[in-house]
Amino acid sequence: MSSSNTVYRASTTAPVNIAVIKYWGKRDTALNLPTNSSLSVTLSQKSLRTHTTASCSESFSGPDTLILNGEKEDIQSSKRTQACLKHLRSLRQELESKDASLPKLSKWTLRLVSANNFPTAAGLASSAAGFAALVRAIADLYELPQSPKELSLIARQGSGSACRSLMGGYVAWRAGTNEDGSDSLAEEVAPLSHWPEMRALILIVSAEKKGVPSTAGMQTTVETSTLAPARFKEIVPQRMQEIEKAIKERDFETFARITMQDSNSFHAICLDSWPPIHYLNDVSRAAMNAVETANRKAGKLICAYTFDAGPNAVIYYLAEHAHQVAGVFRNILPQVPGWEGEFGGSIRPNEY
Ligand code: 2P0
Known about the structure:
single chain, 352 residues, alpha+beta, Ribosomal Protein S5, domain 2, Alpha-Beta Plaits, five-stranded mixed beta sheet, four-stranded antiparallel beta sheet, 8 helices, 15 strands, globular, binds ligand 2P0
């Protein structure tokens, strides 16, 4: 029996994803619509994840609240969080209007509690896991029938990259062309089981918050970079096709080459922005050298680096080359000032 004191609750976790074709640029800042499609690998939740509990009750009063890593967040002034909550409530309202016996959860105050098991905003896609977990927890609480693909459209409004964290394995975010964003959503390119040998090594160069936040940095790039238009219109669409084919054919060398080229292209348009945006540092460049050394020693591409909006490196490689890759990093990186060691060890991709 439910009473006005009944608390409804749902908990979920969402993983981090690390893009191999990068999202950098919005064509619509309010709806979080990107200038180009992107593609990522979803990492294991054992190493990096956000855990979120959503609860609501008729007895809760006041505004919706979010506690993130033990601290109260101001979600009232966050347009993105408000957009997600509004969308999720309207889907719940649809259910309630069709079935009068359902409790009116859509009308009640939401209390959200969320925690990451990794540094927030250090270029480790914390907003991706965060908004994916928030959307899933509330969708579960509201017992919404929407698929992960449909929910990705909501998570995208919270943080663009979050739409890719609602699925496991290899995930594309299709930029779409509709002005209302209705076709800008994530879809699975291949499940983890298709290529389960993929591994990621995360090198924490700095766990400090990044200098230029992604949203502001993207706008600077879109407005000022002379190189960006070619990336948006020609380079990325071509690479999306090539890397999807490489994933389908489990062609690691092509996957690795495109991953490194696209990371470099993203950091090149950052540097080409005005004022220029620098995310890489000398430790990042030492990690790039280590990857190049490992590949040279192997006589083929056995590992690939990629860097997001921060200096930390993610190295993709296949399980069969774990020993060679770890050996090179062990030999080179401890001598580099600022090196803090490996975080989370060798990480597998994730499947829900
Ligand atoms: C990516 N990044 O594809 C790229 C690569 C960083 C570099 O998505 O403004 O936090 O919330 O939509 O998703 C980081 O940007 O930006 C990001 P918003 P988000 O993973």
